[in-house]
Specification:
It is built from 16 helices and 15 strands. It is an alpha/beta fold and 453 residues long. The protein has a single domain (5-450), classed as TIM Barrel, CATH 3.20.20.80. The strands form 4 sheets. Strands 1-2-3-4-5-7-10-13 form an 8-stranded parallel barrel, surrounded by 6 helices. A 3-stranded mixed sheet has the order 6-8-9. Strands 11-12 form a two-stranded antiparallel sheet. Helix 3 (59-73) runs parallel beside helix 5 and helix 10 (235-258) crosses helix 11 (263-269). The mean pLDDT is 98. The protein binds 5-hydroxymethyl-3,4-dihydroxypiperidine (IFM).
Length: 453
């Protein structure tokens, strides 16, 4: 396989991505309020290794060195997230100056080194005070989010122009409120779809608020999309694929890009009446015009009809669908590796809004890493990266409006319910010493990006 920078337009954006709670640490500093992830991580049994994000990569204190590291690797863009409870410790009201100051220093450090900031407003760390008022099950949380977007962009809009409202609302809704694997750890079956609706409303309100504050802003949202295939051509297996594609992809793509929910998915969920009971203006707010769509692509699902319902499924209403092992190689997350599936999801978005620029805002792999002789020989991760960058090149050749790629992740970090037991970084982090070591995959990415000098 060979892929080169020449396969991409000159203006193609190359970067890495992280998220606040996964790297910052400093959870009690400078007036930050508690988030649902502080509470969840402190809950017995919630995190596989019992860890929390209390220290994580200590990026809050080491951000300048981390930006220097990115610059040294030749990265031109950085997608990070802003911690809502640093800006609004209680989830409402004026911006906390110390919280704003951290992100101003981070954005300034990036700009000084020629790295373009892409800021995500919500990567899962809801202020605990809002969870106490119903979290994403409460419609009011959508209004709070629009207010948070406004105060944040007022404070940072002179430094940051690329804004991503939400990261992976499917995870917030269905891992947070159906399977309970993520904060706030609720297991409410199809009611989780109400959280999805409020997240999408929050996104729409934020788009409007951002544009009102900063006409120069470029605004998008990031979805985790999966290539979904049926295990066979049987009607039952095709229906299983329709259901999972519906819940994971179309439940978000359709309202955002087409202006309405897919009726079959609401019926699968048993929530047709609840969705119909919402104000008729909701679909218009959700479908606010975007400047780009962010796609997080990791894997493909191959599914078939099963006959036993998995309890507390992240796929409520479709609990009996089975995920099939096709023998494809897998990462340490047990996610099958299918670089070609990236084209499926890009096409799926593209066919809904052909002029909308697309970004891969995350793509990466977890593997068992060993530091030996001061280096990490993560050939499997390097290979995954190269194959997915090549899939991006194929997308560009096909004429898809792909505008950028962000590798997940810049460095190893707190992998949510897996704690520190799953490493995704291009840079290894020694959690005892906080030493950073660029892995072979990071060196490959750097050489790829700097091959034209
Ligand atoms: O670490 C996560 C990230 O926060 C969201 N997308 C998937 C990554 C890997 O699981």
């Amino acid at each position: 396989m060979s892929v080169s920078l020449d396969d991409f337009p000159r203006e193609f954006v190359w970067g890495t991505a992280t998220a606040a709670y996964q790297i910052e640490g400093a959870v009690d500093e400078d007036g930050r309020g508690p988030s649902i992830w502080d509470t969840f991580a402190a809950t017995d049994g919630a995190i596989s290794d019992g860890a929390t994000g209390e220290l994580a990569d200590d990026h809050y204190h080491r951000y300048d060195d981390d930006v220097q590291l990115m610059a040294g690797l030749g990265l031109k863009a950085y997608r990070f997230s802003i911690s809502w409870p640093r800006i609004q410790p209680d989830g409402t009201g004026a911006a906390n100056p110390a919280g704003v100051d951290f992100y101003r220093r981070l954005a300034t450090s990036l700009l000084e080194r020629g790295i373009t900031p892409y800021a995500t407003l919500y990567h899962w760390d809801l202020p605990e005070a809002l969870e106490a008022r119903g979290g994403w099950l409460a419609r009011e949380t959508a209004d709070r989010f629009a207010e948070y977007a406004r105060v944040t962009v007022e404070a940072l809009g002179d430094l940051v122009t690329n804004w991503i409202t939400l990261n992976e609302p499917w995870c917030s809704a269905f891992l947070g409120y159906a399977s309970g694997h993520h904060a706030p750890g609720k297991r409410l079956g199809s009611t989780a779809s109400h959280a999805a609706h409020h997240l999408l409303l929050a996104h729409g309100g934020a788009v409007e608020a951002i544009r009102a504050v900063s006409p120069a802003a470029r605004v998008g949202i990031t979805l985790n999309l999966y290539s979904v295939k049926a295990a066979s051509d049987s009607a039952a297996d095709l229906d299983a694929a329709r259901r999972i594609d519906g819940l994971q992809n179309r439940l978000f793509l359709d309202p955002l890009l087409l202006g309405s929910y897919p009726a079959d998915v609401l019926a699968d969920l048993g929530e047709t009446d609840w969705f119909a009971s919402n104000p008729a203006s909701d679909p218009v707010r959700i479908a606010a015009p975007l400047d780009f769509l962010g796609v997080n692509y990791y894997s493909r699902h191959t599914v078939r009809a099963g006959d036993s319902a998995e309890p507390d499924s992240a796929n409520p209403g479709s609990e009996s669908v089975e995920f099939v092992d096709t023998g494809a190689p897998r990462t340490l997350m047990d996610w099958p590796i299918h670089p070609e599936g990236m084209l499926d999801v890009l096409e799926q978005a593209h066919e809904r809004q052909p002029d909308l620029p697309l970004f891969i805002t995350e793509n990466g792999s977890a593997y068992e890493d060993v530091v030996l002789g001061g280096t990490v020989d993560d050939e499997a991760r390097r290979d995954y990266l190269e194959k997915h960058v090549a899939a991006c090149a194929a997308a560009v050749r096909r004429g898809l409006p792909l505008a950028g790629y962000f590798a997940w992740s810049l460095m190893d970090n707190f992998e949510w319910a897996w704690g520190y037991s799953r490493r995704f970084g291009l840079v290894h982090v020694d959690y005892e010493t906080q030493e950073r070591t660029v892995k072979k995959s990071g060196r490959w990415y750097s050489e790829f990006l700097t091959q034209k000098g």
